[in-house]
């Protein structure tokens, strides 16, 4: 069976762990519990009649308390940068993380605007509409809470990881 | 035996694997409590192969093997990871260790450390996010109101759109006049202070009062029209209290002058959360330095101690630029390194604190071997030394202004010591250089004088206290007045005539230069029209400051006044300095081209003194060069000045530009210029700047 390592990156509290939990276990908790270090979860997917096991590296949020560690990218087939559409600052931090990933490794990078069940921050559109989305392979809108867009996003990431 | 005891005591809560070869290890020591969960069926003495799971550990083996290959003593760590085994989650960290030619992989169970760290980071991150959200909301409202203030065309339309924006805000918003009278206060603000709209309460006044009492620097912030953000504490006896995050922004409106915008959010929940963790209450998490609250206590303790000391306030500049260019992560790294550099310069008895986003403070004990000024200068040079960021690929730097007050010489009250250090730091910042400024009575007086001047300058526009003087420019071939430079003067009531070198720098710093500059254009157009009426067709030139050139409405303004006064635009000239030209070539080129299309001509003022990138000249739509007075002053005695002037004349001729020599004071200068075909000159030899009526007599 083919295994693909996918790194989940982003600022803190954007919903990386929740996305993985929704995708792997189909559950969601409203309570925010910050992650420390790394946790690896796996899930099998059928992509064009090929079974692929995604190794999802849920990495602690990059912020002033935890820096970006390029070693986590070793062997990764793709990176998912999660941002929180209720906080424009998380988008700017996501762009910065994208830049750091690109410096380190040539892999497809996906932008995931999470918390689509909540209203966007007022300055979101002006920040997001500045041409930076071209940095990403594809962009998705998801809600780890309702599950909207989550399966589809991971399926697309798996396809890209397989084709890499 | 002892290993078992240690294990019982939880001291050896680890697994030790000895590296045999490739991915094979010998289980050397293991804590039974969790070892079997991770490696079911394995025992001490067994061989184990790590080639698949745990995935994180297998990944770390790449680093471990590389490290062992170096044959160096020591260890490297993997960083914490969580290993899900069935329903149980282990919090682990691995270390690769080399000892006497033997290599070990040690796994630690960090359950307790993980929980402790998570509990601190949980609070810290919630605070960080909450702070981001508050600032973001404040910024959105500020931008909207600022945009509305700029867009509004007449006074009657002010309140309606602004009111609409703020009424719906979830947090408190107040707009107050420059005399601190409330213009707008939204319902959320009344609610924050437990007041009812219409019951006569004045939440904005209460806010201002709280700021004045809790922040020694607040009056200076208002006086200097600075932007500010901080946390306030409000108590309503007997039992109600709130923490509020306040942002104060000056909003300049061309029609209505200055407003203050106050944005307030209740952050009590976050504050109590913070207070539940002692480290977060007193320390800045980024730099690990004492925070403002703790610094305040230290300052009061130091005063109680009675030993003399200096209170220093360091204002770090250009951090915003670093955040914008390189991202916040790099900005944070720079702050951490900066804090470390400062830490190296003070002794253990001193206190170093981070009291604001870009502000640090130091209590420097006075001791025979410590010289405050030397230490402060060392701080300046160490802080300003480059920072190498992003794996040392890029270099960036910051600036600093340091203000210092002294206990007990300047004051024996903590609030005043902070206020005075802030004032000194602000004065240092105004100079635009990296300097150290000690507080003094004179400093306070001169600062007061400057603030008075600023206030008077604002009134001067409204009260019509400015006047344009005209200095004739002579055609050297005919000896007749061919044009004039319009120069502003301020007839200040009870003071007399104030010259521009005294008030223009202040106008530039406060942004008043835009309004003053427009008045000059308006008045010059009026005078030109009067000259036309008198049958005098003399060109008038007006000076433009760099800030004016950045004002997008300037072109329209010039056009409007040319049309209103029905003047021939070819008799209006704009003077810009060289520095303005090279700052933003594309924009300036566009602006000048549009000016030219109107028929207005362009001159380069103070030519030769600025950034002499001569390659710009042919590319820009320019008509005249004005040779700076410094070259003319010593023209006769200085061979190098002669050479420079001749070079400028030759260059201007080849570029087909007219030349005006400034500061001509003696006949010999005039003769030299005439001899070398300089077309025009101005200076005291011909006439000093004179009022309009007097100028007309010279024609």
Task: Please provide a written account of the structure.
- The complex is a heterodimer of chains A (164) and B (699).
- Chain A contains four helices and six strands; from the N terminus they run βαβββαβαβα.
- By secondary structure, chain A is of the alpha/beta class.
- Chain A has one domain: P-loop containing nucleotide triphosphate hydrolases (Rossmann fold).
- Chain A has a six-stranded mixed β-sheet with strand order 2-3-1-4-5-6.
- The two termini of chain A are 16 Å apart.
- By secondary structure, chain B is an alpha+beta fold.
- Chain B has four domains: 108 residues, Beta-Lactamase, CATH 3.30.450; 159 residues, PAS domain (Beta-Lactamase, 2-Layer Sandwich); 156 residues, Alpha-Beta Plaits (2-Layer Sandwich); 245 residues, EAL domain (TIM Barrel, Alpha-Beta Barrel).
- Chain B contains 26 helices and 29 strands.
- In chain B, helix 17 crosses helix 18 and helix 18 runs parallel beside helix 20.
- The chains are: A alpha/beta (164), B alpha+beta (699).
- Chains A and B meet through strand 2 and helix 2 of A and helix 3, strand 5, helix 4 and helix 13 of B.
- Strand 2 of chain A pairs parallel with strand 5 of chain B, so a sheet runs across the interface.
């Amino acid at each position: 069976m083919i295994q693909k390592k996918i790194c989940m990156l982003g600022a803190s509290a954007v919903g990386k762990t929740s996305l993985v939990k929704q995708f792997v276990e189909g559950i969601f908790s409203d309570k925010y519990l910050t992650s420390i270090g790394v946790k690896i979860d796996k899930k099998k997917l059928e992509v064009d009649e090929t079974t692929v096991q995604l190794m999802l590296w849920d990495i602690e949020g990059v912020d002033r308390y935890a820096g970006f560690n390029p070693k986590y990218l070793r062997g990764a087939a793709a990176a998912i940068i999660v941002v929180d559409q209720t906080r424009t600052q998380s988008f700017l931090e996501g762009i910065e993380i994208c830049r750091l990933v690109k410096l380190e490794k040539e892999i497809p990078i996906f932008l995931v605007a999470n918390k689509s069940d909540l209203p966007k921050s007022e300055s979101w559109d002006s920040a997001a509409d500045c041409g930076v989305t071209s940095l990403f392979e594809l962009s998705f809108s998801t809600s780890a809470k309702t599950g909207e867009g989550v399966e589809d996003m991971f399926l697309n990431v798996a396809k890209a990881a397989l084709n890499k | 035996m002892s290993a078992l005891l240690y294990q019982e005591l939880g001291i050896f809560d680890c697994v030790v694997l000895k590296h045999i070869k490739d991915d094979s290890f010998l289980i050397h020591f293991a804590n039974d409590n969790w070892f079997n969960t991770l490696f079911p069926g394995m025992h001490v003495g067994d061989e184990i192969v790590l080639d698949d799971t745990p995935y994180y550990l297998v990944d770390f083996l790449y680093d471990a093997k590389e490290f062992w290959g170096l044959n160096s003593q020591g260890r490297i760590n993997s960083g914490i990871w969580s290993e899900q085994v069935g329903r149980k989650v282990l919090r682990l960290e691995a270390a690769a260790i080399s000892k006497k030619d033997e290599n070990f992989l040690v796994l630690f169970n960090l359950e307790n450390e993980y929980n402790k760290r998570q509990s601190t980071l949980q609070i810290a991150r919630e605070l960080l996010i909450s702070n981001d959200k508050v600032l973001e909301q404040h910024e959105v409202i500020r931008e909207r109101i600022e945009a509305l203030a700029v867009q509004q065309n007449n006074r009657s339309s002010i309140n309606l759109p602004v009111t609409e924006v703020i009424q719906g805000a979830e947090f408190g918003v107040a707009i107050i006049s420059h005399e601190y009278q409330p213009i707008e206060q939204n319902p959320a603000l009344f609610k924050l202070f437990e007041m009812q709209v219409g019951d006569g309460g004045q939440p904005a006044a209460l806010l201002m009062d709280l700021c004045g009492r809790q922040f020694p620097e607040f009056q200076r912030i208002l006086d200097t029209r600075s932007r500010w953000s901080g946390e306030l504490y409000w108590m309503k006896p007997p039992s109600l209290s709130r923490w509020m995050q306040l942002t104060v922004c000056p909003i300049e409106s061309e029609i209505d002058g200055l407003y203050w915008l106050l944005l307030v959010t209740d952050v009590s929940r976050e504050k109590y959360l913070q207070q539940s963790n002692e480290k977060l209450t007193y320390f800045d998490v980024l730099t690990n330095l004492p925070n403002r609250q703790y610094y305040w206590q230290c300052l009061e303790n130091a005063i109680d101690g009675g030993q003399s000391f200096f209170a220093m306030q360091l204002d770090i500049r250009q951090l915003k630029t670093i955040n914008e260019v390189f991202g916040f992560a790099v900005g944070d790294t720079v702050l951490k390194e900066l804090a470390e550099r400062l830490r190296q310069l003070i002794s253990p008895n001193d206190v170093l604190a981070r009291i604001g986003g870009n502000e640090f403070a130091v209590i420097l004990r006075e001791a025979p071997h410590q010289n405050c000024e030397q230490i402060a200068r060392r701080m300046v040079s160490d802080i300003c030394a480059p920072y190498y960021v992003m794996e040392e690929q890029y270099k960036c730097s910051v600036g600093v202004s340091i203000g210092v007050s002294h206990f007990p010489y300047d004051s024996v009250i903590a609030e005043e010591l902070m206020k005075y250090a802030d004032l000194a730091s602000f004065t240092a910042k105004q100079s635009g250089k990296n300097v150290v400024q000690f507080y003094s009575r004179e400093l306070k007086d001169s600062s007061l004088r400057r603030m008075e001047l600023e206030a008077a300058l604002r009134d001067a526009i409204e009260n019509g206290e400015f006047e344009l003087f005209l200095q004739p420019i002579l055609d050297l071939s005919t000896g007749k007045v061919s044009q004039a430079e319009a120069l502003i003067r301020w007839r200040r009531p009870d003071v007399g005539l104030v010259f521009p070198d005294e008030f223009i720098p202040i106008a530039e710093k406060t942004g008043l230069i835009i309004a003053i500059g427009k008045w000059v254009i308006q008045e010059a157009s009026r005078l030109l029209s009067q000259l036309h009426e008198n049958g005098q067709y003399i060109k008038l030139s007006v000076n433009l400051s760099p800030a004016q050139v950045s004002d997008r409405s300037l072109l329209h303004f010039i056009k409007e006044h040319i049309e209103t006064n029905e003047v021939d635009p070819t008799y209006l000239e704009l003077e810009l300095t060289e520095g303005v030209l090279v700052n933003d070539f594309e924009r300036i080129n566009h602006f000048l081209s549009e000016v030219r299309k109107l028929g207005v001509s362009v001159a380069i003022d103070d030519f030769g003194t600025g950034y002499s990138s001569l390659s710009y000249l042919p590319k820009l739509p320019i008509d005249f060069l004005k040779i700076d007075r410094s070259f003319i002053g010593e023209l006769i005695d200085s061979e190098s000045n002669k050479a420079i002037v001749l070079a400028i004349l030759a260059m201007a001729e080849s570029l087909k530009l007219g030349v005006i020599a400034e500061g001509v004071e003696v006949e010999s200068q005039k003769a030299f210029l005439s001899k070398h075909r300089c077309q025009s000159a101005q200076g005291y030899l011909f006439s000093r700047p004179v009022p309009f009526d007097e100028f007309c007599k010279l024609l």
